[in-house]
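Entry type: protein chain
Record version: 2
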Amino acid sequence: MPFDWREFLALAKALQQSPPTSCSIEAAQRSAVSRAYYAAFCYLRNYAENHLGFHRTRTGKDHSLLREHLKTRGSPWDVLAENLEELLQWRHLCDYDDMVGNLNLITLGAIATAKDIIDICS
């Protein structure tokens, strides 16, 4: 049975709401942003494969290829491509930068954006 990528969104929400005592709130929030991105990306990627003619390469290029494919499909897919790009930028901040300002707002925004993307594809 294939993995349900919405579980990553549930994990992101859990990390945001109740960070484990074994790590800092910052670590939990950064991880929540990352999981929210991958929930949205993988769910949308699979939807695009099944309904919009997207063909993945199974490489890191799929992140940009998916967004480009969606942009050619018109509304609402072009907006979802922009939302996915914003999620990716937030994930990059959280995964690579030593300091992230407004982390709480970014975390809440990432979870809400991922939920919106998944809801449109459900």
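Comment: The first helix runs from residue 6 to 17.
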